[in-house]
Amino acid sequence: MSVLRFLVTRQALAALSRPASINLLQNRAQIALASTLASSSRTNSCLKAATTIADGNPCQMQIRGHKRFGHQQEKTPQVTKYFHGLLLGLFVISVLDWGKVKRLLMPKVDADSGQRPSSAAGVNGEETSDSESDDSEEHESSGGLHLHEGKKFREKVGFRERKIIEYENRIRQFSTPDKIFRYFATVRLQDATQTIVCMTPEDFLRSIYPGIKQPDGLGLDQYRRYDPKSVGEQLNLHLEKNSIFYKLGSYGLITFSDYIFLLTVLSISRRHFEIAFRMFDLNGDGDVDCEEFEMVATLVRSQTSMGTRHRDHANTGNTFKGVNSALITYFFGPNMDEKLTIEKFLDFQEQLQREILSLEFERKEPNDDGNITEADFAELLLAYAGYPLKKKQKKLKRVKRRFRDHGTGISKQDYLDFFHFLNNINDVDTALTFYFIAGASIDQQTLQHVAKTVALVNLSDHVVDVVFTIFDENNDNQLSNKEFISVMKNRVQRGLEKPKDTGFLKMMRSVFKCAKETKPVLLDI
After folding, report:
1. Does residue 388 share a domain with residue 317?
2. Of 137-141, 249-253, 358-362, 512-516, where does mean pLDDT reach its minimum?
3. I need a labelling partner for 28 at 20 to 30 A (CA). Which of 1, 43, 111, 189 fits?
4. Are residues 349 and 432 in the same domain?
5. 212: containing domain
6. What would the pLDDT profile of 398-409 be if each residue is shown by its tens digit?
7. Residue 105 forms part of a structural domain
8. What pTM, to 2 d.p., does this model score?
């Protein structure tokens, strides 16, 4: 019985297992058949796609692509990585103060950085370092002068004032004459019929001399209002009775037309005016009448950077209306029937330059003896040099150290004589070039000899000593001819010969220069 039960159970188990194996085999056969059909369909589709491309019908082809399949992060191309790295590097280069990095990596070690001599000690036994005094002088060099217990000291220029001065220097260098006049003019004459904007002689000097800050509350289209009938009593211009500015009008004020004319007179040399006069002197007598003078003035003005840059602006009222009637009366008489000689006009140009130089000298506030310091004289010479700030401060420090204890100052006459010598700078350049070609050294005696021979001026030993201190970099008592002539030519021309138009390359240079000057500002934020 037990044997029969065992056999029945075995047959039952065999019957149950047989369909499962058959189903498994059938499933496997179906999977193989499906894969075969799929592969054959893919082959057919590929063949069909190839046939479509061969037939020239690419629009019937369907292509599928997958990006970030399974939300995987897409790889950044190498070109994009290099571009981002370049942008980051340029940003770091533009904001980094490379001067400070250089000082940190390569500290400057002076030969006398060890023990100071006993003579350098102060009255109370405290040592005074030249670096500290130089730093203090550097901060004070551009401040205003004040008197305190009989001595001159300067106000320190803050961050805001320094940035305003830099902005105004860019206005002087790149803006149109109309905007420069509207920015630096401070007087508005207004009555019931008309309004006239004018400059004082101080305003005119401020418009051409870099580094002088416009008074607070006065700027672009901001003026002090005066009644034309009482403006002479209200304004105190501190001018001499025979001042050249009084020839422009009864009050010594400068209109926009006068401003353009005076800039033209200052920017053209004597020789160019002589050539222009001879061109329009038809009868050869050396004189010109009023109409011929108008043509001469128009021709000369068209050759200057201010004249080529100027455009009349009727909405602001700054239109060039020709030479001032008062000046025409001075040149040609009340009936305009006189002749203007070249000698009279050149005398007018010399008087104008002399008065501008006098205004510059008086701004330095001479002492009781009428002298300015050697450092102030050096600053006047380097005003238009175009040096970087650090190089200019280095030269001024050298002058201050050289004449700190035994400086006698520069008188006004010595100052005017030296600039009379500079008016012949082209001839001086030729004479010094001959010395250089001959192999002769240019020492102080040579410069004095050239000044006496070419410009008929006797330069004092003290003025020549200050000039050599400025331009003698290696202390060999020899003048650097190329640098001296270049700086002095810029000083005579007052930057008026530089073109005002900013082309693409000049614009890019200005952008890089602005970025370079604002590096420490970005680091201070």
Report:
1. no
2. 137-141
3. 43
4. no
5. 161-353
6. 999 999 888 889
7. no
8. 0.66
